[in-house]
Amino acid sequence: MKTTKLLFIAFITAIVLYSCNDNSVNPIDNLQPGRRDYVWTVDTLNYPYNPMYRMWGSSLTDVWTTSSGYHDKSISHFNGVNWTSFGVDRMNVPYSIYGFSSNNVFVGSGGGIWNFNGSNWTNVANLTKDGHSDIVFDNMWGNSPDDIYATGAYPDEYGANNSVIAHYSNLKWEMLNTNGLYGIVEHLYKNSVDDKIYLQVINIGGGRYVDSTQIYQYSQKKYKKIYSSVWTKGLQADISLINNEVYFILGSEINIRINDQFQTVLNVNNPNFNQRIWGRNSKDIFLLMIDGLAHYNGSDVEYLFHFNLSDVLPWTQIFGAALFEKEVFFLVYEPTTHLNLIYHGKLK
Question: What is the mean pLDDT of residues 243-270?
């Protein structure tokens, strides 16, 4: 029980500081500045103490969220009109979700991978690492239905720092060698620009070490550390996939990677920037702020909305997003009220 509790606390802590989900549209020729004339509505998923941490969607009538809380409300789905929540028999805590269509959705749970075919949920893999089955697949991402990654960790004495990466290809799941990594593999994406894989690894210090984040480049089965930062306000690091290109959030700077060097796209001067972004393209990027959601249109940054509880600690969080051509969904959690809110924006 102690190990399970430590693992749960470690992953909750990691998710609070580092979370994002990526849904992007096809490349846009002759990019125009992203529009900001959204009309916002807010749906309340009133399940106190049941925070939802991941979001993915295939269309405006097929948006999903997952939660590590109550089993009977651990998965929520939006059908274009209403949100419904439910649990799946025998599924052990659905931490992460990713898919390719309404009839091909994957969930990463405690040690297992599940698939939804549009009608039924099936446990398609039960994986172990170094003899451990107490793995938490904290996030998932895929380049195609035959190229999917599930990432996370299993416990060590300080929290959850034994790195795990599972890969699906050629109709089978297998564990990748993670020698040289230490921490929760929180995000992993393939960059279309240089055809390299980048991953964000979170270290839970457990009081002995400093909580920190490392960013690695993975190429030819080797991991190369390219950035490191501590968990201090304004200095956190993250990665995000926007239009199939990896963006690196390094403190106040948003960067891309060219010729193995960071190139700054935007320096966010606002001290309220909370080191988390989502976007459709380089001129249509959403930024999490401590007090709300802002937008970069290629030339400047403006707020789209402010949180109701913008000056109360702990800060309101956005844990995920689903972006479509003319509508957006943001998964918002208010720690002080314990409410899950879905901010739904529609362009006029």
Answer: 97
Per the CB < 8 A criterion, the answer to whether 4 and 133 are in contact is: no
Task: For residue 132, give the DSSP letter.
Answer: B
Closest CA to 22 of 341, 307, 323: 323
What are 94-133's pLDDT values in tens digits? 999 999 999 999 999 988 999 999 999 999 999 999 888 8
In the chain, alpha helices (H): 2-17
Strands 222-230 and 237-242: unpaired
Burial class (CB in 10 A: 0-12, 13-18, 19+), 311: exposed
Given a contact cutoff of 8 angstroms between Cβ atoms, the answer to whether 222 and 260 are in contact is: no
pLDDT tens digits along 146-190: 999 999 999 888 778 899 999 999 999 999 999 999 999 999 999
Torsions phi, psi for 12 (to 5 deg): -60, -45
| Separation CA 127–CA 108 (nearest Å) | 11
Domain count across the chain: 1
User: By mean pLDDT, which of 56-60, 134-138, 156-160, 285-289 is the weakest?
Assistant: 156-160
Beta-carbon-side half-sphere exposure of residue 172 (alpha carbons within 13 Å): 4
Q: Kindly report the length of the chain.
A: 348
What does the alpha-carbon distance between residue 294 and residue 148 come to, in Å, rounded to a whole number? 31
Give the Cα-Cα-Cα angle 35, 83, 332 (nearest 5 degrees).
55
SS3 of residue 32 by DSSP: coil
Measured between its terminal Cα atoms, the distance across the chain in Å is 51
State which residues form the domain around 12: 2-347
Instruction: Please report, for the domain that includes residue 31, its CATH number.
Output: 2.130.10.10
